[in-house]
């Protein structure tokens, strides 16, 4: 892109789809329709994850008032949570304070709070503490939460991994298991403590299983006297016919071979029926089977967060089984052109007609796109082309 000229809005074109790269610079002096009270358009962004943060950054030079609201005051790099869970990284290495990241954006303020409701007609969001804020445009990037598919009681024995707190809890469980096994003399109990079951063979489950394998066979190999950590049994379960369902077959097979070298047993096409303190009960083609394991980690799936369900109720938006909200080609909700949904909450379709994956790259591109769409509307320019996700290898 050519060098930026004064008084023009710059939006990161690398984060936009091919159909949204034209007219990237907008003359600010010609923007109309700003709020009569503040003289600036009020944009509220709910969520400081990949989608929300990128949206805020893309509005850096726009003549709008940006308010980013999150129940955490930091941006979390979730793809690396498994490394916190296995002790490779500390929490501070994958979390960055939102205020610090956006400190140079004079049109942006950060508020710590949890948005629990909204009034789409009055154009206000409501926080858990009773505060409310008006908006002219709303970007909802509240993310997702762990789904136990109706078995929430399993959470007590099989923690998920969506937050720093959960990741550090899992790290404690993994290391504690080796410590208890060192002291236990009963071989059956020792085997149970040295058995680790990961439910869900998506990207998170595969990475986590491999990392535990490295801990057992490399990191802790020479640290104990009564046990041999390399003999730990690591089992990766999934109901799908293979690991990494969203990825190509050849990559999935390569992942299985890599896991096998680390001692990970992969069991696909099995369904979890019960989880308690001592074991996991699964259903296989040959009937029920019990896995005696004291450490179980859940990477089995995600569902819409509570705000996503509330938003669907307030706007009568169509949702899928996981609670994602169906969005228009410009990422707005039907009948609500000023509400954008991006990231894990958005049910957006790709060129093949299938939903886009819930990965960071999609969320970031959607966040930048929503920012540009808002500027386009303020400018009274031609409608923005439909969102298109493009794969970047840089």
Can you walk through the features of this model?
It is a single chain. Helix content is 27%, strand content 24%. The chain has 394 residues and is α/β, with parallel strands linked by helices. It has 2 domains: 13-146 and 302-379, FAD/NAD(P)-binding domain, CATH 3.50.50; 152-298, FAD/NAD(P)-binding domain (3-Layer(bba) Sandwich), CATH 3.50.50. Helix 1 (50-58) runs parallel beside helix 9.
- Unreliable residue stretches: 1-37
Q: In total, how many beta strands?
A: 22
Output the CATH homologous superfamily of the largest domain.
FAD/NAD(P)-binding domain
Task: Profile the largest sheet.
Answer: 6 strands, mixed
Span between termini: 17 Å
What is the CATH class of the largest domain? Answer: Alpha Beta
Average pLDDT confidence is 90
Q: Which structural class is indicated by helix and strand composition?
A: alpha/beta
The number of helical runs is 9
What is CATH's topology name of the largest domain?
FAD/NAD(P)-binding domain
Q: What fraction strand?
A: 15-25%
Calculate Rg over CA atoms: 23 Å
Labels describing this entry:
single chain; 394 residues; alpha/beta; FAD/NAD(P)-binding domain; 4-stranded parallel β-sheet; 9 helices; elongated
């Amino acid at each position: 892109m050519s060098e930026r000229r004064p008084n023009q809005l710059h939006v990161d074109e690398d984060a936009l789809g091919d159909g949204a790269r034209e007219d990237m610079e907008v003359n600010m002096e010609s923007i109309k329709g700003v709020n009569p009270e503040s003289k600036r358009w009020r944009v509220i962004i709910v969520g400081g994850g990949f989608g929300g943060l990128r949206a805020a950054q893309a509005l850096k030079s726009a003549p709008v008032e940006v308010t980013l609201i999150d129940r955490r005051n930091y941006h979390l790099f979730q793809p690396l949570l498994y490394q916190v869970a296995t002790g490779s990284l500390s929490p501070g290495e994958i979390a960055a304070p939102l205020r610090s990241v956006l400190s140079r954006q004079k049109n942006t303020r950060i508020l710590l709070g949890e948005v629990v409701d909204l009034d789409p007609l009055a154009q206000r969001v409501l926080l858990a503490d009773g505060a409310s804020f008006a908006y002219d445009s709303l970007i909802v990037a509240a993310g997702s939460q762990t789904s136990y598919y109706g078995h929430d009681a399993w959470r007590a024995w099989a923690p998920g991994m969506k937050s720093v707190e959960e990741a550090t809890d899992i790290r404690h469980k993994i290391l504690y298991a080796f410590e208890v096994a060192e002291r236990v003399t009963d071989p059956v109990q020792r085997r149970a403590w040295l058995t680790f079951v990961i439910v869900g063979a998506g990207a998170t489950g595969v990475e986590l299983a491999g990392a535990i394998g490295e801990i057992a066979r490399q990191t802790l190999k020479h640290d104990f006297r009564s046990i041999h950590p390399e003999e730990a049994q690591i089992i990766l379960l999934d109901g799908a016919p293979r690991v990494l369902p969203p990825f190509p077959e050849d990559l999935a097979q390569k992942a299985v071979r890599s896991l096998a070298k680390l001692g990970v047993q992969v069991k696909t096409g099995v369904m979890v029926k019960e989880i308690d303190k001592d074991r996991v009960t699964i259903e296989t083609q040959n009937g029920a089977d019990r896995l005696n394991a004291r450490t179980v980690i859940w990477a089995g799936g995600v569902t819409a967060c509570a705000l996503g369900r509330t938003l669907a109720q307030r706007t009568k938006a169509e949702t899928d089984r996981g609670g994602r909200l169906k969005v228009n080609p410009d990422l707005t909700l039907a009948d609500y052109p000023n509400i954008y949904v991006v990231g894990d909450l958005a049910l957006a379709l790709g060129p093949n007609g299938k939903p886009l994956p819930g990965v960071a790259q999609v969320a970031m591109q959607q966040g930048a796109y929503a920012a540009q769409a808002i500027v386009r509307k303020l400018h009274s320019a031609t409608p923005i082309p439909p969102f298109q996700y493009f794969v970047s290898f840089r």
